Amino acid sequence: MPPVFAHGALRLYLLALLESGPKHGYELIKALSERFGGTYSPSAGTIYPRLGKLEEEGLVATEAEGRRTNYRITAAGLAELNSRRDELANVENDIAASVRRLADALRADIRSNMRGLRADLAATAEAARSAARTADFTGSTARSSPEGHRMLKEAEMLLQAFRDDLRVELRTQASTRPLTPVMLETVRTVLDQARISIRNSLKAEP
Fold first, then answer.
1. How many C-beta atoms lie closer than 10 Å to residue 91's C-beta?
2. Which comes out higher in pLDDT, residue 36 or 10?
């Protein structure tokens, strides 16, 4: 996969992010992740060396804030940013292209993972059917017997527990980082495929 940022582009984009005010390293990493819709998040090992280089060049200055170090753009940094606005527009266009490329790659990964999930669900369903065939009751008896009602109740409880667990995960995620369109598409795709697989397994029951 091509690099997310062309040579020198991340350096320029960091100056642009600092134009709105001082930020510490984590804030810059978070801002970049949000700009990419969650499809890319730079590591600290990528960001801090570039910030250090900008500081060496006098384009960025640091300010201590408790245990954190804030970075702010200097007059020299602002002058360079103003002189390279056309390049910055190209960087924005490149970022938009990178988001589309990364999203396409993520969707391809999702489709590949879903094929594996469907295979796992099919194998699990087949194992369940085999176990049911060896049990000492028929499907019709199971549906009308206390045992059948118990298993139905257990299946409903499993679905409810899955729903509750997933809601907690989603709310926890949303409290720390907003859900992105890619994340929402991932959830929708996985749930749709799981529903289809479970429905097909139920229809295949003897």
1. 20
2. 10
- C-alpha–C-alpha distance, residues 199 and 181, integer Å: 27
Beta pairing class for 68-73 and 23-24: antiparallel
**Domain limits of the chain?**
9-83, 102-204
Q: Decide: pTM greater than 0.70.
A: no
Residue pair 33/78 in contact by the 8 Å Cβ criterion: no
Q: How far apart are CA 101 and CA 32, in angstroms?
A: 16
178-187 pLDDT per residue, tens: 777 667 767 7
15 close to 54: Cβ distance less than 8 angstroms: yes
Q: What are phi and psi of 20, to 5 degrees?
A: -80, -10
Amino acid at 143: R
pLDDT above 70 (res 113):
no
What confidence score (pLDDT) does residue 24 get? 92
Structure-token pair, residue 181: 């369109």
What CATH class has 9-83? mainly alpha
